[in-house]
TrEMBL record:
Species annotation: Bradyrhizobium diazoefficiens SEMIA 5080
Protein name listed in UniProt: Formate dehydrogenase region TAT target
Transmembrane domains' residue ranges: none
Entries under InterPro entries matching the protein: Formate_DH_TAT-contain (IPR014177), TAT_signal (IPR006311), TAT_signal_bac_arc (IPR019546)
Recorded superkingdom: Bacteria
Length: 72
């Protein structure tokens, strides 16, 4: 029974180390991509302004996907 217990503990330790190694590798790769935190530069008025514009490519998307036309 002690042999089974040793094998189980060894397997668990192995999986823990593999998991920790994967996390460490991921953190190493992600570190250069992370920049310093910056505050939001938009004012409240800019955040609330309308951003949607019905351009030609948006109209084509609606037409191709058979969305009903606005106002008619």
């Amino acid at each position: 029974m002690s042999e089974d217990r040793k094998a189980t503990v060894g397997r668990r330790d192995f999986l823990r180390k593999v998991g920790a190694g994967t996390l460490g590798a991921g953190a190493t790769l992600a570190t250069p991509l992370v920049g310093s935190a910056q505050a939001d530069s938009e004012t409240n008025d800019e955040k609330r302004k309308a951003r949607y514009k019905e351009t030609d490519h948006v109209k084509a998307f609606y037409r191709v996907n058979r969305y009903p036309a606005k106002g008619g």
